[in-house]
C-alpha cells in the first residue's frame, strides 16, 4: 500500500513541478513584471532604503513588527538547507548551467513576490500582536471564497509548520553528527528545547530572534564565500563562461545538457526563494508600515537575498573549487568538500554550523506561517497550543528519523498551495499595481507615501487602513 502511495505521489509531483507549476510561475512572473513596469529592477535602491525603516506609528505609538523584522522572518524561512545542499544537488544533476536558470527564475519570480506581499499588506487584519495576514486572508476578502482560504491554510500549516520543520531538524542532526560526533537524539532534544522557548513567545519573539540570527548567518556565510572568490579571482571569468555555456547546452560535459540544467535550476530556485508560493506574504502582513508597497518591495529584496546572494555564494564555492567534478560527492557533502578544499579542515565544521543556523532559522520562520494560518481557521488558544506542541514534536521526530513519503507528500502539498495562491493573485493582482502607482505618485511629490482605503478603488471593506482625512470632501 505504501509503495502504491509513493508511486502516486512521485508521479503527481513530477507533473506538478515539471510542467504545471513551472509554467504558471514563469508566465505569471513575467506578466506581473511587465504590468509593474519591472518594479524589481527599477526600485531596487528603494528596497534597500526601506530596510532601515522602523515600525510605523499607529495613533501616537509604534507597535507591531518593523519592515526589517518582517524581512528577517521571511528570509529565515526562505534561507535554509536548500541554499547549501540544494544548490549542490542542482549543479550535480544539472551541471554548472543550472546556476544561470536559478538566477533567471529569481529575477522573474520577484515580480510575483511583489504582488503577493503587497496584497498581504492591503488585506491584513489586526490581532493582539499587531497584524497578521497572507494568501488565506486575501483569498477570503478579495475573492470571497473562505473555504479555499481554509484549504490553503491547512496545506501551508502541514507543509511548512510540521513537515518542513522535521526536514530541517533532520538535516541539522546529520550535519552535527558528521562534523562533531554528537548523537542525533541529543541534537534533537536541544533543538526541541530551543524551538519551544521561541515559539511559545509568539510572533514578536520569532521576529526578535530572526532579526538576530538572519543577518549574522547570511553575512558570515557570504564573507567566507567572498574569501574563496578573491582567492580564485583569476578563475572567475572562466566560471561565468562555464555557467553560461552549460546553460544553453554549449558545454554539457557535466550534468544532462540544457534540459537538465534548466529543470534543475528552475526547480531549485523555486524551492529556495519561494516567490509566488504564498509563504512569504504571511510574514509581509505582520509589518507595521505606512504603505503596503513598502513591504512588497522589502519581500522582493528577500528573493534576491536568497538566490542572488546566498545561493550564488554556494555556487561560487563549488564551481571555483572544482569540487563538482568529484564523483560520489553530492548535496551538503559537496558543499563541505568545496569549502574544505579552499580553507582547510575547519570548512567542514563551518558548514555544519551554517547548516544549524540556516535550518534553525527556517524552523522558527516556518512555524510562524502555520501560526497565522491556524488563527485564520479558528482563533482559539487551544488550537494554537496544540499546534505548538505538534511543531515541537515534529522537530524531535525529524532529528532522529526520516521517512521519504513524508517529504514527498510535503512537496505535493506545497505544489497545491502554490497553485491556489498563484490562481488567486492572478485574479486580483491589479490592486497591487494600483497601490504601486499610488506609491510612485507620492514619491515623485517628495512625500513619505501613506496609504488609505480610498487611495485605490475596490477596497472599502479592508480592516487595517483608514479613509484619508479629506475623504468626505472627495465624496461630496
Protein architecture, described:
There is one protein chain. This protein has 476 residues and is mostly helical. The chain has a single domain, classed as Amino acid/polyamine transporter I, CATH 1.20.1740. Helices cover 76% and strands 2% of the residues. It is built from 20 helices and four strands. It has helices at residues 2-35, 39-42, 44-50, 67-78, 81-94, 98-122, 135-143, 146-180, 184-199, 202-231, 236-247, 257-273, 280-284, 292-321, 331-343, 346-377, 381-400, 404-428, 430-444, 471-475, and strands spanning 57-58, 61-62, 125-127, 130-132. The strands form two sheets. The protein has a two-stranded antiparallel ribbon. Helix 4 (67-78) packs across helix 10. The radius of gyration is 22 Å and the shape is globular. The protein starts with a helix and ends with a helix. The mean pLDDT is 81.
What attributes does this structure have?
476 residues; mainly alpha; Amino acid/polyamine transporter I; two-stranded antiparallel sheet; two-stranded antiparallel ribbon; 20 helices; 4 strands; 76% helix; 2% strand; transport; transmembrane helix; cell membrane
Q: Summarize the helix and strand pattern as letters.
A: HHHEEHHHEEHHHHHHHHHHHHHH
Spans of at least 5 consecutive residues whose pLDDT stays below 50 are none
The total tally of domains equals 1
Distance between the termini: 68 Å
Helix content: over 70%
Based on secondary structure, the structural category is mainly alpha
Largest pleated sheet = 2 strands, antiparallel
Order of neighbouring strands in the sheet with most strands: 1-2
Give the CA-based shape: globular
What is the residue-averaged pLDDT? 81
Number of strands: 4
What would CATH call the architecture?
Answer: Up-down Bundle
Q: What is the level 1 CATH name?
A: Mainly Alpha
CATH topology: Amino acid/polyamine transporter I
Number of helical regions: 20
Return Rg in Å: 22 Å
CATH H-level superfamily title: Amino acid/polyamine transporter I
Q: What is the beta-strand fraction?
A: under 5%
Multimerization status: single chain
Amino acid at each position: 500500500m505504501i509503495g502504491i502511495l509513493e508511486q502516486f505521489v512521485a508521479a503527481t509531483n513530477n507533473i506538478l513541478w515539471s510542467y504545471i507549476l513551472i509554467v504558471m510561475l514563469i508566465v505569471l512572473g513575467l506578466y506581473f513584471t511587465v504590468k509593474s513596469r519591472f518594479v524589481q529592477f527599477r526600485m531596487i535602491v528603494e528596497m534597500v532604503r526601506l530596510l532601515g525603516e522602523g515600525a510605523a506609528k499607529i495613533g501616537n505609538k509604534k507597535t507591531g513588527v518593523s519592515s526589517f523584522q518582517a524581512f528577517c522572518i521571511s528570509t529565515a524561512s526562505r534561507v535554509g538547507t536548500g541554499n547549501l545542499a540544494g544548490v549542490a544537488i542542482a549543479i550535480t544533476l544539472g551541471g554548472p548551467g543550472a546556476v544561470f536558470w536559478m538566477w533567471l527564475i529569481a529575477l522573474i519570480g520577484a515580480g510575483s513576490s511583489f504582488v503577493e506581499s503587497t496584497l498581504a499588506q492591503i488585506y491584513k487584519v489586526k490581532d493582539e500582536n499587531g497584524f497578521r495576514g497572507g494568501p488565506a486572508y486575501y483569498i477570503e476578502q478579495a475573492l470571497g471564497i473562505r473555504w479555499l482560504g481554509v484549504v490553503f491554510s491547512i496545506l501551508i500549516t502541514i507543509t511548512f509548520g510540521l513537515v518542513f520543520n522535521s526536514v530541517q531538524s533532520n538535516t541539522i542532526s546529520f550535519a552535527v553528527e558528521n562534523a562533531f560526533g554528537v548523537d542525533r537524539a541529543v541534537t534533537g532534544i536541544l533543538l526541541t528545547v530551543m524551538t519551544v522557548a521561541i515559539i511559545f513567545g509568539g510572533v514578536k519573539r520569532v521576529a526578535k530572534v530572526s532579526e538576530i540570527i538572519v543577518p549574522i548567518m547570511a553575512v558570515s556565510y557570504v564573507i567566507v564565500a567572498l574569501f574563496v572568490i578573491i582567492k580564485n579571482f583569476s578563475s572567475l571569468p572562466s566560471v561565468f563562461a562555464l555557467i553560461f555555456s552549460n546553460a544553453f547546452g554549449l558545454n554539457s560535459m557535466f550534468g544532462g545538457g540544457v534540459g537538465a540544467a534548466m529543470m534543475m535550476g528552475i526547480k531549485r530556485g523555486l524551492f529556495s526563494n519561494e516567490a509566488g508560493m504564498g509563504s512569504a506574504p504571511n510574514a509581509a502582513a505582520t509589518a507595521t508600515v505606512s504603505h503596503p508597497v513598502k513591504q512588497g518591495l522589502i519581500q522582493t529584496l528577500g528573493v534576491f537575498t536568497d538566490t542572488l546572494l546566498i545561493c550564488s555564494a554556494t555556487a561560487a564555492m563549488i564551481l571555483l573549487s572544482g569540487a563538482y567534478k568529484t564523483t560520489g560527492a553530492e548535496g551538503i557533502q559537496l558543499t563541505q568538500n568545496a569549502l574544505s578544499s579552499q580553507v582547510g579542515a575547519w570548512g567542514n565544521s563551518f558548514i555544519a554550523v551554517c547548516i544549524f543556523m540556516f535550518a534553525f532559522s527556517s524552523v522558527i520562520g516556518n512555524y510562524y506561517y502555520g501560526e497565522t494560518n491556524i488563527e485564520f481557521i479558528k482563533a482559539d488558544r487551544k488550537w494554537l497550543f496544540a499546534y505548538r506542541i505538534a511543531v515541537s514534536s515534529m522537530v524531535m521526530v525529524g532529528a532522529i528519523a526520516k521517512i521519504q513519503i513524508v517529504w514527498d507528500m510535503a512537496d505535493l502539498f506545497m505544489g497545491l498551495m502554490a497553485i491556489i495562491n498563484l490562481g488567486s493573485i492572478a485574479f486580483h493582482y491589479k490592486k497591487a499595481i494600483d497601490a504601486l502607482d499610488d506609491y510612485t505618485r507620492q514619491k515623485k511629490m517628495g512625500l513619505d507615501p501613506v496609504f488609505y482605503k480610498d487611495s485605490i478603488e475596490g477596497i472599502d471593506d479592508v480592516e487595517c487602513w483608514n479613509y484619508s482625512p479629506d475623504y468626505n470632501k472627495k465624496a461630496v
